[in-house]
Amino acid sequence: MTTVWMRYLSGADIESLGVTDADIVAAVEDVLADHGNDRVVFEPRTHLVPDNGGKGHFNVLRGSLTDKGVSGVKVVGDFVGNYERGLPSEMALISLFDPETGMPKAIVDGTMITEARTGAMTAVGAKYLARRDAKVLGHVGARGTAWWNVVLLDSVFDFAEIRVTSRRPESREPFAERLAERLGKPVQVRASWEETLDGADVLVEASRLTEPEPLLRKEFLRPGSFLVPYGTISALALDLLDDVDKIVVDNWRESRSGDPRFGALRPHLNAGLLTEERIHAEIGQIVAGLKPGREDDAERTLFWHRGLSTTDLAVAGMILRRAEANDVGTMLPYR
To answer: Which PANTHER family is this protein grouped with (predicted)?
Structure first.
């Protein structure tokens, strides 16, 4: 019998490969075009909620990339209190398979991939939906994905002003310091949501609320602004959509799937304020050139992304190909 081997890639293995910001953004943008052209298969996400007193839950994402020859499953935990244990709030594993044979190809540390593909989705959305001359970024949240949001957005826009805030001063201060060192420019720490978001050209809400709270109000959205809300628990005022000219999602089915408690715009969905008729497009349709992105400098645009399994697989597949070419990782006998 033929021995079946699979490659294990740890976080350190991935770091050694020299993957760049541009590599990650390109992988995500490319697979979004595949979405628009119906060249992917992906299943609805599911949630596993352990009996753990509300400490956290798991998201299970599944998909297959038709043109790239890879299928896979990601399991990612979302445990908001992990900072108290010195752990990331989101830790993930991605299993990759050959779609022709079902053979396991790799087990990949998906923690950095989850954070980076989320930031890349924010950056790609901004590329098509924000004003080209956007100069001010306001960012709420300092968790892992927040880092990649700011870094990858700045790689596209080279902002003149970056403002950040988070619930805890002990997280936002070092977050800003790390960003300033990485980006080579000042990063302003603000104490409130209003100071951070009001009047910004690009607004990103990546908060970690435990109960819905209308902290993000429509008054923050000036003409020409672009908003990305994706906190697990909604922080958006119910009337915020009244002032939004164009709403784009990553996938309309995914917007409605899973536990109705989770998702930045789930209260708006549940109240009938967000409907399919209100959606301008899915981001893949825009990237593929099937629908327009921003059409007017005065438009207030909103991009809600919940996370597509296919973006995880695109980045993981790119990393696997590079690991195979450089013989990086640990080969494990499957059978």
So the answer is: KETIMINE REDUCTASE MU-CRYSTALLIN (PTHR13812:SF19)
